Amino acid sequence: MKVSEYAKHLLLAPTLEDKLLPPSRPWEEETDFTPIRMERPGRSPKLQFSDKKVKIPRLEHLNLVSNRGLSLHHFANHELMAIELFAWALLAFPSAPKSVRNGFLKTIEEEQTHLKLYLHRMREFGVDFGDLPLNYIFWKQLGQFGSLESFAAVMSVSFEGANLDYAQIYAQVFSYYGDHTTSEIMLTIFEDEIKHVKRGLRAFEHSIPENKNQWEHYLSLIKFPFTPRRAKGYLYLPETRILAGMDPDLIQSIGNYEDEYTGRVNLESVKKFGLGETILRKNRLDSHLPSP
């Protein structure tokens, strides 16, 4: 099978089972390098996009098992979109360096693992995927993806960068409530997201013009209404970007960015859960890293 054939399968397949088909190796050589840009993925009726907004439960409400299932449903939706969009990028940018394409394939494989972890744990909480409306926030960014670099800026530096914050926040809150199984899932995802951001940075960094720094380059690759606000969680943990090898000035600039949509962290929640004090790692050893 060619990489392009596999990518088409992931995009056009209607069921979760088909979208969870892992990459196989070795790959056949590509013969056609014509870019293909699909407007939306194939999905079964239960998995269709919805414009209905469903709020994720507040951190304080994760003491309830039902709310944990709802939160994981939200995260699982992001994983499915990521699988599809990295497959989309393999078709849209067929001339990307082999190292980048291989990185995207590895990211797809890891996102599939994340989705399976979420699906299993959700079902233990009594929630099945598709029970709630599925937003398409990632797919709404297709107009941003004019180049490989802009794709990396939006998907890796921004969305996956923000997930470094969210995976940490939820790992710590689940642990606070004694749900160490779900906390471990979030830490597994956190460790993989570090690698995903690293891979995206490679695609992003190689094209920085001599007259621009990384922050300026990043800003040139995204278009309003998408803003750097999407590159961080509602609590920004710059130490996580250090782990991903992000440029210190870029880390600081993302942290300093504010606009009219910038939310305000519930300081009582931060205090209650001790968020931001430490970074949990998979081996349960806290990592105390200097701020950039």
UniProtKB/TrEMBL annotation:
Transmembrane segments: none
Pfam families associated with the record: DUF455
Lineage: superkingdom: Bacteria
InterPro entries linked: DUF455, Ferritin-like_SF
Protein name per the record: DUF455 family protein
